[in-house]
Amino acid sequence: MKRLFFYLAYGCGMILAVILVINAGIYFKTRSYIYNSVDDAPEAEAVLIPGAAIFPDGTLSSIFIDRVDMAIRVYEAGKVSKILVSGDNSTVSHNEVNPVRTYLLKKGVPDKDIFLDHAGFDTYSSMYRARDIFGVTSVLVSTQSFHLPRSVFIARTLGINAYGVNADEGHIFFRNYVREVLANEKAMLDLTFHRQPKYLGDKIPIMGDGRNYP
Question: Which cellular components does GO assign to this protein (predicted)?
Fold first, then answer.
């Protein structure tokens, strides 16, 4: 029993050590690419808004609104010329991207500059499709501090010149940070094994006209 306990403790210790190393590595490799101010952020082709929770009536959650509002500020500051909304539209009843388009239009963003990725089922898929479907080579990611390191790390590992803009507005819970601990491990596995997203499809050039695409 003592030997079994030793091996169990050793195994758990090794797992925790790997988790710590991966999370620390992602944080330190991306921190110089993350900005708290729109003014300090570099220019890029587009700002990418990762999907987040929506309510049954299509209303955006607080975290989602914060991401979209920061993206609008980035766009209005002239840092980007296009907005790419990426989210889960896996069913007719669950659509994370169309409500954002409606929100952006109400805020005065021209329709031609809005692009929708309906198959951004997770952060890895969003970044992969941004590169392979939309042809994005440089991007500002508008999301919260707990999500930025993983987002930027995935994008840069996939070859996108990516930076992050902090969309924190106080609507964050401790569980958001806890979730990222394991999400970082999944991201590393996805990158290591070159996972392809569930859907790819026809090219949609990000520097084109968003009105030409549904």
Answer: plasma membrane
